[in-house]
C-alpha cells in the first residue's frame, strides 16, 4: 500500500509547481494560455510517469491521470487534450502490457475534467465540494484496469483502485485549492489594474489609460492611416447638477458615455478626460468619417431625451475636433491643444456645435480680413475729415 502512495505523493509535488505555472500563464491571451497550460500539464504528466509503481510486464501505476484531468478541468478542453496526447504518447513509448489500459485511463481523465468544467463553469470561486466532484469524475479512469487480462485486473482492483480514487479526490482538492488561489490573485490584480485605468463611474478608459491608447494607436499606424481627436464637453453641466442633483449629473455622464461608445463603435476609443469632458480618438483612413461621427454623436445626444429624477430633458454637447495625418510632425500635446481651441470656439459660438481645428484658421483669416477692412475704412474716413478741415 505504501509503495502505491509514493507516486501519488510525487504527483502532488508536480501539481504544486504546475499551480504556480498556471498562475503565471493567466496573464497571456486565452488561446495561447490553453496551449501553454496543455504543454505544462503534459510535461507534468510525463514527469509523474518517471516514478511509477510497477506490477510487472509494463503495468505502471502513477499520478498522470490526475494531472491530465486537472489540465482539462482548469485549463479547458484544449489544454486537456494536448496534455492527454503528450501523456498518451509517452505511455505508448514505455510500452508493456498496460500501455493500452494506461492510454484509455489518460483520455478518460481528460474527458472527466472537460465535463466537470462544463458543469461548474468556473465563473465564481470554486468550492471544495466541487473540487471533490472533479476528483470523483477523474477517478472513473480506473475502469481502464479491466482492459488488462482478467487475472491481472482482479489482482489490481482492490490494492490499486481505492488508492487511485482517494488520490484523485485529495489531488483535486489539493491542486484545485492552489489553482483557485492563483486565480483569485490574478482576478484581484486585474481588478486593481482596471481601477487604475478605468473610470469607476462610467467603466470607460480614464485619462491615464487614454494617453496610453493614443500612443499605441499612433505607434501601430500604417501608411494611409489617419487619426482624429474629438474633445466633447456637456453644455451647462453645472446647471444640470445644481438643478437635478449630483446623482442626476452622474446619470447624464453615463448617458453621454454610453451613446458615445455606441456611435464610435470599433472605430475608436472613448474616455472620460475629467469632469464633464470626454476625449475620443478615431482611427480612420478618411477624415469624412470623423465629421460624420462627430455630427451624428452631437445630433443623437441633442434629440434623445434623458430622464433625470423623473424629468426628461435634452442635453447638448459641444465638440472640438483636431485631425492628424502626418504622425511624425505633430505632437499629441499639440493635437490636444488644437482640439481644445476648437471646443472653446464651439462654446463661444453658442454651444451644441462641432468645430474642426482647421476651421479656426479660416475663421482667423476672415476675422483678419474684417479687421483690415475696418482699419481701411477708418483710415479713409480720417483722411476725408482731415481734407474737410484743411479746406475749411
Automatic annotation (TrEMBL):
<dbReference type="Pfam" id="PF07694">
    <property type="entry name" value="5TM-5TMR_LYT"/>
</dbReference>
<feature type="transmembrane region" description="Helical">
    <location>
        <begin position="156"/>
        <end position="179"/>
    </location>
</feature>
<dbReference type="GO" id="GO:0052621">
    <property type="term" value="F:diguanylate cyclase activity"/>
</dbReference>
<dbReference type="GO" id="GO:0000155">
    <property type="term" value="F:phosphorelay sensor kinase activity"/>
</dbReference>
<feature type="transmembrane region" description="Helical">
    <location>
        <begin position="35"/>
        <end position="53"/>
    </location>
</feature>
<dbReference type="InterPro" id="IPR011620">
    <property type="entry name" value="Sig_transdc_His_kinase_LytS_TM"/>
</dbReference>
<dbReference type="Pfam" id="PF00990">
    <property type="entry name" value="GGDEF"/>
</dbReference>
<feature type="domain" description="GGDEF">
    <location>
        <begin position="225"/>
        <end position="359"/>
    </location>
</feature>
<keyword id="KW-1003">Cell membrane</keyword>
<dbReference type="GO" id="GO:0005886">
    <property type="term" value="C:plasma membrane"/>
</dbReference>
<dbReference type="GO" id="GO:1902201">
    <property type="term" value="P:negative regulation of bacterial-type flagellum-dependent cell motility"/>
</dbReference>
<keyword id="KW-0812">Transmembrane</keyword>
<dbReference type="GO" id="GO:0071555">
    <property type="term" value="P:cell wall organization"/>
</dbReference>
<protein>
    <recommendedName>
        <fullName>diguanylate cyclase</fullName>
        <ecNumber>2.7.7.65</ecNumber>
    </recommendedName>
</protein>
<dbReference type="InterPro" id="IPR043128">
    <property type="entry name" value="Rev_trsase/Diguanyl_cyclase"/>
</dbReference>
<feature type="transmembrane region" description="Helical">
    <location>
        <begin position="94"/>
        <end position="119"/>
    </location>
</feature>
<dbReference type="InterPro" id="IPR050469">
    <property type="entry name" value="Diguanylate_Cyclase"/>
</dbReference>
<keyword id="KW-0472">Membrane</keyword>
<keyword id="KW-1133">Transmembrane helix</keyword>
<dbReference type="GO" id="GO:0043709">
    <property type="term" value="P:cell adhesion involved in single-species biofilm formation"/>
</dbReference>
<feature type="transmembrane region" description="Helical">
    <location>
        <begin position="65"/>
        <end position="88"/>
    </location>
</feature>
<dbReference type="InterPro" id="IPR029787">
    <property type="entry name" value="Nucleotide_cyclase"/>
</dbReference>
<feature type="transmembrane region" description="Helical">
    <location>
        <begin position="131"/>
        <end position="150"/>
    </location>
</feature>
<dbReference type="InterPro" id="IPR000160">
    <property type="entry name" value="GGDEF_dom"/>
</dbReference>
Amino acid at each position: 500500500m505504501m509503495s502505491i502512495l509514493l507516486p501519488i505523493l510525487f504527483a502532488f509535488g508536480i501539481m504544486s509547481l504546475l499551480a504556480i505555472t498556471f498562475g503565471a500563464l493567466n496573464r497571456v491571451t486565452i488561446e495561447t494560455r490553453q496551449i501553454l497550460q496543455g504543454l505544462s500539464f503534459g510535461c507534468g504528466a510525463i514527469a509523474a510517469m518517471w516514478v511509477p509503481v510497477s506490477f510487472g510486464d509494463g503495468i505502471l501505476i502513477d499520478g498522470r491521470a490526475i494531472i491530465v484531468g486537472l489540465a482539462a478541468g482548469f485549463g479547458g478542453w484544449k489544454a486537456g487534450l494536448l496534455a492527454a496526447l503528450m501523456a498518451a504518447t509517452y505511455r505508448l513509448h514505455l510500452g508493456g502490457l498496460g500501455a493500452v489500459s494506461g492510454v484509455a485511463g489518460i483520455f478518460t481523465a481528460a474527458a472527466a475534467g472537460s465535463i466537470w468544467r462544463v458543469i461548474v463553469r468556473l465563473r465564481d470561486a470554486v468550492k471544495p465540494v466541487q473540487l471533490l466532484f472533479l476528483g470523483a469524475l477523474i477517478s472513473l479512469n480506473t475502469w481502464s484496469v479491466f482492459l488488462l487480462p482478467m487475472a491481472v485486473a482482479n489482482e489490481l482492483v482492490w490494492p490499486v483502485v481505492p488508492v487511485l480514487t482517494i488520490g484523485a479526490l485529495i489531488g483535486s482538492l489539493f491542486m484545485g485549492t492552489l489553482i483557485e488561489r492563483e486565480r483569485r490573485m490574478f482576478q484581484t490584480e486585474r481588478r486593481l489594474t482596471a481601477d487604475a485605468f478605468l473610470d469607476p463611474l462610467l467603466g470607460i478608459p480614464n485619462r491615464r489609460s487614454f494617453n496610453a491608447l493614443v500612443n499605441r494607436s499612433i505607434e501601430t499606424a500604417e501608411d494611409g492611416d489617419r487619426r482624429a481627436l474629438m474633445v466633447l464637453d456637456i453644455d451647462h453641466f453645472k446647471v444640470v447638477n445644481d438643478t437635478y442633483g449630483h446623482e442626476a449629473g452622474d446619470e447624464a455622464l453615463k448617458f453621454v458615455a454610453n451613446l458615445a461608445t455606441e456611435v464610435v463603435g470599433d472605430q475608436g476609443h472613448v474616455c472620460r478626460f475629467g469632469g464633464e469632458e470626454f476625449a475620443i480618438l478615431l482611427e480612420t483612413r478618411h477624415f469624412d468619417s470623423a465629421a460624420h461621427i462627430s455630427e451624428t454623436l452631437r445630433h443623437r445626444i441633442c434629440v434623445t431625451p434623458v430622464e433625470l429624477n423623473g424629468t426628461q430633458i435634452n442635453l447638448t454637447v459641444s465638440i472640438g475636433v483636431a485631425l492628424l495625418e502626418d504622425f511624425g510632425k505633430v505632437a499629441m500635446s499639440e493635437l490636444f491643444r488644437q482640439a481644445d481651441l476648437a471646443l472653446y470656439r464651439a462654446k463661444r459660438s453658442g454651444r451644441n456645435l462641432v468645430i474642426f481645428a482647421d476651421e479656426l484658421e479660416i475663421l482667423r483669416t476672415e476675422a483678419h480680413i474684417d479687421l483690415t477692412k475696418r482699419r481701411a475704412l477708418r483710415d479713409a474716413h480720417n483722411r476725408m475729415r482731415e481734407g474737410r478741415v484743411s479746406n475749411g
